[in-house]
Amino acid sequence: MMPGRIAQTLYKYAPLVILAVAWEAAVRAGLVSPTMLPPLSDVFKSLVRLFSHGAIFGHAWSSLVRLVTGLSAAIVVGVLVGLLMGTWRAAHLIFQPFLNLLYPMPKSALIPLMMILFGLGDTSKILLVFLGCLLPLVVNAYNGARGVDTKLVWSARNLGAGNLRVLTSIRTRAALPDIMNGIRTALAFSFVILVNAELIFGQDGLGYLVGSFGSLGEYSSMFATIIIIVAAGFACDRLFQRFSDHLLRWRAV
Amino acid sequence: MTTVTEFTGGDVAAGAGRGSVGIRISGLRHSYGRNPVLEGVDLTVAPGEFHCLLGPSGCGKSTLLYLIGGFLPVQHGTIATDRGPVTKPGPDRGIVFQSFALFPWKTVLQNVLYGLENLGVARSERLERARALIDMVHLGRFADAYPSQLSGGMQQRAAIARTLAIDPDILLMDEPFGALDAQTRRVMQEELLAIWQKTNKVVVFVTHDVQEAVALGDRISVMGANPGRITQVVSADFNREKGSNVARGVEFNSTVESVWEMVRHEATVAEKSSAREPGSR
Fold first, then answer.
1. Concatenated DSSP letters for chain B?
2. Which structural domain, as residue segments, surrounds residue A19?
3. Whether residues A159 and A70 fall in one domain
4. Are residues A53 and A33 in the same domain?
5. Inter-chain contact A159–B91, Cβ cutoff 8 Å?
6. Is residue A253 part of a domain?
7. Do B95 and A160 make contact, defined as CB atoms within 8 angstroms?
8. For chain B, which has fewer Cβ within 10 Å, the N-terminal or C-terminal residue?
9. Do A165 and B118 lie within an 8 Å CB cutoff?
10. What ipTM is given for this predicted complex?
């Protein structure tokens, strides 16, 4: 069973392995200048150095704090707004214009504004993460709350539930699959906007590290940091999916 | 019985009279936008009566049930129980839907507990009552299963237990066995009769199945469409001495035949009138 699964995983990620081999080969064969694109083996050496040196952990921690704070706040606010919009028409009328405004706006365009308003510290970056991942959270929670089977709401009311109890125990629970989808999308968005912000005006954090290695011409360390960011994003997504599957285990298989 | 006589309300049926709460409906009209769905419904359901609403699709039988349940606002006319006029949903009128409408994220036990939690029943008593009801509908081994893990018949049993948990005076059932296969349906019909006889509740049961209506109902309201109304009320309470088993003898068959004639007539009239409407199929 186990060897079968390993083979399956290898097969699934074969294109990545091929890319890695092609990368290494292209540089070694002199097709690309090593100053422009360091060989992958050098990138891995840098990766090991980053960890053994230990400096990476401080930066990772800074990024993590911003990400968790901004994303958590966005989840609380976004889900609440979405649920209210899906439940009460008045809430929909109030919030819909703001959503329409936020939808086509590239969130990274807000970076200079946030810098001016809230300085170069954590506040502006956390706010950017917050704004950057708000939209999928609101939209998904709204769709979830709106799509609740009327018969479930009727059943709850019939079983003695008042408006608030219907919202908390029925609409929120019935919307949970959509809410979890929204959080997954928001998670990806939060990585993008945070790295953007740190690149542009960071003094620490993984995004800052990418930018400073790049400007110093230390491309192998830069690529190593990018790999760390990608791996962290991948791991977060997988962990979240595990958690989500457990939470939604009641669904038909 | 091929003549259709207009039913006028006000005649209290010879119901079993074991319970204490009945339903009085008078001058009830309802429309969705400009479409009239119910016109001039008058009906009195006696305490303890098992009453079937029978008719073709589009006759407004489900709408009538939802109005009694308080899920739709009464536009014209009145609906009252012994507790007063119906204005909103309440645990005195429990409902069971064709689609079961179990909370899919809750186990069978949690579904049955939900109403008891809302009513503020003490924790130990809640569990005891829920377990007893789950046993009554033969789901004891499945108390911790999610609805998605159960068959249609089992899900409907769970839904019935959930509704009985709040001990309603009136049980409203919206084609509850419509989604079940023939064998399961028959078993469920007999179990429902047994429960009804044990609990003395008023049952209002919506169906489009003539046999089901005759097998279950003390009385049957035959409904017509375009717009929906009650055209006749038929007595069919000859099965009761046989306990929970539905006797399907000569009387049963002749009643099915005569009710079927009425329904056929209504369906034909409905088809003709909808064919004459411009823009309809």
1. ----PPP-S---------SS--EEEEEEEEEETTEEEEEEEEEEE-TT-EEEEE--TTSSHHHHHHHHHTSS---EEEEEETTEE--S--TTEEEE-TT----TTS-HHHHHHHHHHHTT--HHHHHHHHHHHHHHTT-GGGTT--GGGS-HHHHHHHHHHHHHHT--SEEEEESTTTTS-HHHHHHHHHHHHHHHHHHT-EEEEEES-HHHHHHH-SEEEEEETTTBEEEEEEE--TTGGGTTSPP-SHHHHHHHHHHHHHHHHHHHHHHHHHHHSTT--
2. 1-37
3. yes
4. no
5. yes
6. no
7. no
8. C
9. yes
10. 0.86
At A188, which CATH number?
1.10.3720.10
A162 shares its domain with A75: yes
Chain A residues within 8 angstroms (CB to CB) of chain B: 149, 151-152, 154-161, 165, 169-170, 173-174, 176, 248-253
Q: Tell me if B105 and A165 make a contact (CB, 8 A cut-off).
A: no
Q: Is residue B120 a part of any domain in this protein?
A: yes
**B27-86 pLDDT per residue, tens:** 999 999 888 999 989 999 999 999 999 998 888 999 999 999 999 999 999 999 989 999
pTM: 0.84
Q: Is residue B9 part of a domain?
A: yes
For testing the chain B interface, which of A154, A155, A167 should be mutated: the one with the most B CBs within 10 Å? Answer: A155
Same domain, B155 and B203: no
**Tally of domains in chain A:** 2
User: Same domain, yes or no, for B155 and B234?
Assistant: no
